[in-house]
Fold each of these.
Amino acid sequence: MSLGEFDLISRYFKQTNELANDNGVEIGIGDDCAILDLPDGYQLAVTTDSLVAGVHFFEDVCPYRLGYKSLAVNLSDLAAMGAEPKWVSLAITLPRVDEPWLSEFSRGFFDLARKHNVTLIGGDTTKGPLSITVSAKGIVPRNKALLRSGAQVGDLICVSGTLGDGALGLASKFDTLALSDSAVFVDALELTEPRNQLGKQLINYASSCIDISDGLIQDLHHIVEASQCSAQIDVENMPLSDAMLGEIKMHHVTEQQALQYALAGGDDYELLFTISAQHYSELCLHNLSDKVTVIGKINANNDIKVNLTKAGEIINLQLAGWDHFKKNK
Amino acid sequence: MSLGEFDLISRYFKQTNELANDNGVEIGIGDDCAILDLPDGYQLAVTTDSLVAGVHFFEDVCPYRLGYKSLAVNLSDLAAMGAEPKWVSLAITLPRVDEPWLSEFSRGFFDLARKHNVTLIGGDTTKGPLSITVSAKGIVPRNKALLRSGAQVGDLICVSGTLGDGALGLASKFDTLALSDSAVFVDALELTEPRNQLGKQLINYASSCIDISDGLIQDLHHIVEASQCSAQIDVENMPLSDAMLGEIKMHHVTEQQALQYALAGGDDYELLFTISAQHYSELCLHNLSDKVTVIGKINANNDIKVNLTKAGEIINLQLAGWDHFKKNK
């Protein structure tokens, strides 16, 4: 691509970036670096995620949704630390300059950025195979970040929102499933809502936290391994959406399949956190931004890191992906 | 790639990262975000650059040098702001897990990181076409960052080091050039030394600064446009390396070619800055980390943004790439 074409891209993202200069941004796009102000008493939280065509999305994905999701997955990592999103860098590699595509991509990206008051502070546009790397930065009160390593024996295990819809949405893109309304599940997959407001509310209450990107059980493993404990999850308490319950009722999805999506599906981007019973009762006095469900509790360290229970009894659910996961971890 | 293979990559970069926990890093690799401490009185400087195979480098490039350079170009952006490098995120997309390649890539990356006391604080590894996105973060005393926009009429224009070697190195990779020693020029291209020490020394002295990635004239344009002034450059003052002067003496390179490389070649990663005569004389009292040469001065705003002079007279040098650049900017 010629300089002129790249100039156009930079100008495009610069114009759309109306929040710059109002968010601790002393210097935004247009110099060698961005220069940013952190408020006193805060630490910087930084996360980076890449989305690559053919791996994380299909080349013909709706660009609005790709722009939206490439930011959403990064904001979700900030949410998992209790951090308030502030700034984002975007490195985008494109096979060619395609103005309608860029227009839609940036519309999706900035629709979510505006909602969370996030300012684009720089990045890079390059010619090459389509991929997006987003680095999001947020602020968190000093020494208050929600880590994976703080879970204590006896803590409750909680999850925000509902689980499994995104995984069913992904399945419906690969297979022809007889669903009453597949769009709601595809929306859950592609227009995921990062839980940054809830993440901030969990500060001073939750003992550990992670966002669910790879599936509840896999991400719970990260918590119990970092915290040197084990967990039990009551499958009867799994929060399923009304849409998922509707599909079960219509016999489009079995209960076993719904559990598979909820426990091992991934792409939920809900917050999974642990909290003492005392703190949980205090937390519930707040007007929480999202629904929170208690799904289990933390036990002492054990060779079996995560047990599933039903009516108080340990069950052995055959989940696809489960053996593979255990083998690799 | 399986989870296991990606685990290996993460572990690999984690092990090599011996500086973590000693650089304001409260949480490094291994949680949802890194958590970083900025010292009081400092601002955050952030830059992001992507290197894509087939665009910025050949797929068969020496991985040590690719690892080194992918960090070097980002540190150079921090140098141009006068920022001290602290932290870096690395997003790397690979067609397959190739341990010898990764070992060499990370050796080059960390050799430079150690030299500048930079800590790897996170990133992402993905399967896909080879590309590298680095986001480097540094600190700069509040309101002291060196911007492009501060040049004043009458300021001297200075450049660090020597110019043109990297461009000749690049040319020697495309064409068979009769050079006495092409390795020194290829080294200048691939093992570029970012000028972070000098950048810090320029704080409180330089009125504007940029690093030369696209060629002296093109990057000088960024300064004079941001500062609303014009510039004149005396081509007789161009700092050329002993190696380049040797090739001219041997008639392997003409003086005109050497000027072309020095003025419009790019890939120098030297600092280009403006400074008042008073500040320049004060700066020269310091033990500067790199050679600095005065190459011109800043004039009042004008339609012609950059004039080249020889013996005080404006000359019209026919530089390849020059018209293309003017047209696009």
Amino acid sequence: MTVCEVGPRDGLQMAKSIMTTEAKCAWIAGLAAAGVREIEVGSFVPARLIPQMADTDAVVRFAKGIAGLTVVALAPNLRGAQAAVMAGAHRVSVPVSVSAGHSRANLNRSPDEQVAVVGGIVAWLRETAPGVELEVACSTAFGCSIDGVVPETGVVRIAAALAAHGVSQIGLADTVGYANPAQIRSVVRAVRAEIGPALVGLHLHDTMGLGIANALAGLEVGIRDFDAALAGLGGCPFAPGASGNIVTEDLVFMLESMGFATGIDLDGLIKARALLHQGLPDEAMHGQLAKAGIPRIFQRAA
Amino acid sequence: MTVCEVGPRDGLQMAKSIMTTEAKCAWIAGLAAAGVREIEVGSFVPARLIPQMADTDAVVRFAKGIAGLTVVALAPNLRGAQAAVMAGAHRVSVPVSVSAGHSRANLNRSPDEQVAVVGGIVAWLRETAPGVELEVACSTAFGCSIDGVVPETGVVRIAAALAAHGVSQIGLADTVGYANPAQIRSVVRAVRAEIGPALVGLHLHDTMGLGIANALAGLEVGIRDFDAALAGLGGCPFAPGASGNIVTEDLVFMLESMGFATGIDLDGLIKARALLHQGLPDEAMHGQLAKAGIPRIFQRAA
């Protein structure tokens, strides 16, 4: 069971203020100390578009020094992927929007054009940095605040095209948080029928309050890799209406309570929340576990 | 699919201020106008213990005038049940705690003593008011903030004792919100194996952020009757740490999105939230749907 923390990337890009590099590094170290083993630490995008990500190179270099941590960096194109590899990221995460409207707004390319960009990144990595992993997140796989309904066949088509390019780690993202549990099950099954084990994970948002229920639905159809953000930070600057990622600590509480070992310690996450709050004092922090406290009767999975 | 609104009872008993009878009635009328067909409108308990419930008689009499609405009132004992029947409630809801500590704190009786009280209410209703329904909510069925872990065998034992007394509507309540989805499935299956269709519903709290996921788990094992509170109001004065009920509008959004017809209109619930806020302006209101708005692509179940 893998919970990948995406707060330092997806969480921060909507933040009202800029978190310092030092504060980011302290937060990332706190997450790793809690047992988080995968962290998406930033994105290699132009600083004029997302100023919160201007120091991603330094953050990747810091995070690389944490033993046992898989350092993930987002890159929208080959240039960004090259920067991620140069900085030392273990894995590059590239977004491909399933809906044309979000693709245009977020990447200024059509979905098919972005699939071709991924093809170029696959080829370059194979040639230049064969040890670096590549994952692709299919954005707006469950609905789009610009285009509306996203047909399941469209998701399957994009996932198949990515798999045909040799991408072996493909995730489905509910970028705007419109998914419901029945849809999660249906889309996961349809995509898996097409690409098999190359479908690895879900990236869920809690816009409508269904994020954790959607994670449960994913769990039930075999997903074992979830993105989440401490305190439910996050959103997408080009998807109006989108709000925070699912809350890492609430997700971990559910998984551990159900007997799934995440390797993550809840007390450690609560401590990491304090570091996040120190570094970003004006940002709203979500999550029920932190409000209610860890129940005395909570038992970690073995 | 039935969503029973319990805000006017479970929601209000923890409220910091007293809602006027007029405001309660306006809120209840708003809920009914949104299509809510069952509302637990109050409880017949001593006003010195829960002053928010002092006007339950008047509220029941008002709610009885709304065509098509099933009016539910909570009663902890025979005297309360008699008052509920006198006021005209269609259904009396009686709590039985599974855990001894909560039973003592909430009812000042042991669980077995309270089962005997239920037996007396069954006999009295049969004799005096055969048209009035009786339901029993098994409190702390998934954990207790006083006693800690609540064994599944204890829940089954209490449910069986209630069924033996002829109670045909039995619900399981996660009074303090400690349940996880795997536990929901397990306890529902164990209780159903013992009492069959007399197990009708779930009463869930969102203390740990798992309330909607727990509802999904219940849905998957055949539960079609859920309690919820508008804006997630609620708690239990004798269960430290307990926070709000699951949010009616978020639950309805999930159910309708998944294709389950609730008969409830989300716009109507948003309007009822405004009435609740007018009547109780200092109370925190929860729920994601109201924050995010109803997505343009939302489709009601047919």
Amino acid sequence: MLTLHHLEASRSIRVLWLLETLNTPYEIKHYARDPKTRLGVDAAFSGKGLAAVHPLARSPVLTDGELVISETGAIFQYLLAHYGGVDIAAKTQQAQELSFWLHFSEASFMLHLMPLHYANRAGVLTDDGSSAQEAIIARGLKVDIEYIERTLRANGGSLLGGGIGPADICNIFGLEMFAAMTGARSAAWREKLGLAVGPEIQKWLERCAAEPAYKEAQKKEGDCKEALYVSKLFKQPS
Amino acid sequence: MLTLHHLEASRSIRVLWLLETLNTPYEIKHYARDPKTRLGVDAAFSGKGLAAVHPLARSPVLTDGELVISETGAIFQYLLAHYGGVDIAAKTQQAQELSFWLHFSEASFMLHLMPLHYANRAGVLTDDGSSAQEAIIARGLKVDIEYIERTLRANGGSLLGGGIGPADICNIFGLEMFAAMTGARSAAWREKLGLAVGPEIQKWLERCAAEPAYKEAQKKEGDCKEALYVSKLFKQPS
């Protein structure tokens, strides 16, 4: 049996959404965040909770019987290979594009977004995006966003063309996070740094939000009344 | 014919090293960095140089005849599948561990290291690691480093056991970068943040540096006289 070890309001939602699109039974094991710190409650190497499944105590982790699969991209590849009939290594441009997007989501986009998230959390972002650090942070992100915008335009509204699929699903969390973070800044900040959701990405976010399998995933995660799922993560604790 | 589109002093060195371990012909096309900014000279979407191979103008890109493969992890998977006889999707823990490390290198480790790199470039790191931002940056990195240290200890000095292999090769750039960056900080800074190369990682770095295929890769990159290959990237321009 497939089991998704799922931390609430986390990038694990993507695996949950992917599982909803595959015709295979699975179960979810839910893990909570600390309501104050918003961090997972299970410390790495503690052997408790998520750390009992994988020492890093990070989510998602997929177990398939005795097998333990960690890292979102690796989980996508495993599920697609064994439950989706997709050979990610095929010598076709289509397969290599999918492989690209499965890596890009974390290895490029989240990698470029995380410095912004950390700077935001540390309270060092300026009102108008004028610091040297923000300029450095923006550089890679701007290129990522432009590439996604161009790709969606060229491919008729999804990353690989042919409608919302695994490449899109794998990139939803980063783009929702980007939308939530840049949406909370001033217009001057967005303009100065060139960091804003473009029209194609906006339509894509709405298209993803309307996907029945994504709605079902959000329902299984625990009812979400936010416009953007990920905004739950950025709420100030009460 | 396989062609590696290789930006000097970049994470592309890992693909070059991997190619040196595979029994297949390939060629290297070299791309330069701007000596002042240390950025690649080809702007994204410019259609010139690296951007003529892939619009993002990032390195590495592998071409295999007409096929274009981008993102380091995707390139590793492709090369391992077609030129290394490795099925990354196999339902074995060993295959899934390899898949994990190929994603971890960028999607976890570099993702956690990049905020430190950006903060360093922006000149906002403190002498003693006492800022709120540094504490936030350190959290994920510390866990990564401890996990690598534990894994190397458990597996006899390589990430998957059985000697230096693709999992190690894929992680060399991030760990050399971590060693160069933390080595340039004060002992007080390293102690405060818990960010330092441990004994297992130190031995692993030395073991990697002694690998004939890595030496050959560095030679093909262009002679490197630095103790750590990656330190070239952090040299101040003259």
Amino acid sequence: MSEVLPDRIEEVISQSDLYSETSDTATVLAQADEVELALLLESLPIQERIILWQTIPDHKKLDVLIEMRSDPRAVLVSATEPEQWDVLFTDIDAEDLLELADSLPQELFERAYTALDRLQKQYYTEADQYPEEQIGHWISHDYLVLPINAKVRDGLRLIRREMPRHTDVIFLINRSGHFSEAVPIAKLHVLPEHLHLTDVSLDDFPIISAVEEGQLVAKEVLLSGFGALPVVDENEKLIGRIDVTTAAELMQEYYEGQIMASAGMDEDEDLFSPVRKSAKGRAIWLGINLLTAFVASAFIGMFEATIQQVVALAVLMPVVASMGGIAGSQTLTLIIRGLALKQVTSANVGALLSKEFKVGGLNGVIWAVVIGVVALLWFNDPLLGLVIGIAIFLNIIAAALAGVFVPVILDKYKIDPALSGSVILTTVTDIVGFVAFLGLGTVFLL
Amino acid sequence: MSEVLPDRIEEVISQSDLYSETSDTATVLAQADEVELALLLESLPIQERIILWQTIPDHKKLDVLIEMRSDPRAVLVSATEPEQWDVLFTDIDAEDLLELADSLPQELFERAYTALDRLQKQYYTEADQYPEEQIGHWISHDYLVLPINAKVRDGLRLIRREMPRHTDVIFLINRSGHFSEAVPIAKLHVLPEHLHLTDVSLDDFPIISAVEEGQLVAKEVLLSGFGALPVVDENEKLIGRIDVTTAAELMQEYYEGQIMASAGMDEDEDLFSPVRKSAKGRAIWLGINLLTAFVASAFIGMFEATIQQVVALAVLMPVVASMGGIAGSQTLTLIIRGLALKQVTSANVGALLSKEFKVGGLNGVIWAVVIGVVALLWFNDPLLGLVIGIAIFLNIIAAALAGVFVPVILDKYKIDPALSGSVILTTVTDIVGFVAFLGLGTVFLL
């Protein structure tokens, strides 16, 4: 059903009558929901994206913008006529604005903020106190709440009036607004109306603190078995909730962010960002890596005289570097995941180091022998085989140790190891590898 | 609340009285849910893991095993006494067994299967027809269902009897068991009891086909705004549902799988797998990468004579290889995400290629100049600067094109680009880089 759109992106794009409102395309678009439209818009080159944007009915536009990643969204924000915004902002609420704020120029942000009613303004200010990394920034205010002295009949009255998505419990708060208990809605139907809700509330219902890290909370909400969990401020006051859909969006953003970070990009990267913007964003990462490559070169440069006499060393350098880099990235990837899951702590890092050291030792010996023999046969030089074998062994061991230490130390200093871990790691393995290989070559082969 | 455990892993592990049931540790463990226990067990070295496992009450053990990744789980399966399994399998159902099946030796699997009642056996067989990649494998059978001629009063009666987690609608089926409509439970409370449910059902409720790909369905369920979506077989018969918690687990496994694949590992990798097993698993990936490194070496070997005369070429080789590899991995990562989101199709691949070509061209020119100047100053040789500049430019362009083509072609042949994309890509950039650099060096510098 709702899968119809992604499968037809191809068709839609290739149709030349994209902007005729009577076309087939228009029919497809009318059926699409905001998530699908957002994905479709992101997948289009900029000109086509703007054309399609203009055919989307105004009442859908705000929801579509909210679903989009911020880079591709920015293109559409600039392409929207100033007079259109009042229509778009008609029904905007605090959550919408929190999501959009970064993409709006100051003047537009102010128009949107003005369009909020008093309560939404208060919600906005409250959530905006928390940075984007903290879950307090992403709370919603659609939930069912009653005072702790409420009865089953009050609960029934409440659920007859409204029922926000993913609502399976009613939150109970005390006089100061502190979260107290949660009552499963399913129970309301089978209990006498005069019973107190506190008599049927759940023990130990999970509570989220607004300052907790977004992705950890997301996982907790998703695995809790409940549709949403309550969020409290530092005084235990109930300020909102996180439901499974919001949690899923946070989780997806987190993982996509991790994957993009490994290539020095971020989750908001646009498939079709303007060439200059894209080139600039990537240039920084290329520059950082260039510095580390020059460092490796500098170390090689120390052995120019050796290379001149034994050119085979130059030929085999990529093998030494590659084996260290790959072995290190395996350990690194495993440890980064362990850190994210809070499974790697100071209590088990010693045991991990010892295990990775042994794995590295075993693979080091195996590949040292294999590569040593290949080098011997290729260049008909047993000493060269010995030299590369020892270098490979040392580099794989160094890779294993760096694969544990680098992410653990970065994490300790609150630096995301998914972003910078592999640059630092390959710098280590390049240097160890080249110095060991060329150094031993200088000793044994000259 | 339920966050208590991960934070205390450290404490728990470091306590020497881990296996005294009267200790603090025992108290902490008693409060922990199965997800937390699974995470904790995975984070322990094997001996400690087995000791802790033995202190977990039998009635929790099956649920804990189900939450674990399969490699660390296998350790505990072998450490469990044969006579214990009958207790563990007491309440096993089809979903549990589908999750565990791969970790159980044949004999244990048969005991578990025998413990299922007739209905659960049928569920098992039904779901097991679908491979793990398809959503049909992961369906659950806890949902509310009524015939299409049912009335509001039937709905109310049903929800008073049972209310599975994440249930916000009742599914309606026709006489042949085909899914027909979904009725929001919230509406039942406000409608006359004699009304037909079909009069208040939702239009266009999303339906999942059992053969759809797990991770795509997971996203759809999570973003649908509903607690669960119905799954139908190829005859449109309702066979189960996927709720948001199952969807979240599938999504997490998918993303972790992508991240681990980039280092040639899989999502089930154990932090503390036995050294030999771990070394063996990683050796394959090291071997594949070694082959590509030898290919690069072979190309360098073609230019031995040149290197001997201009050793600076050997010194600068890592710079050429590194810039190509990094630029390529940026494009690759962006395209892999686009493919996963179904945003990259044959309709826009041309436009993407053209954009990446331009981005590569721009960054190629910039870094060619920077690196050319550095080389000139370092080795005081303008021709060397020219040679490396041209090689860098060509390699960044090649990287951009390979970054688009490699994943698109792999995807077309159903090979996961997250696993093999970067090996192939760096092989391309290594060869292009070395041949361009050393080849131009041979022409201009000899």
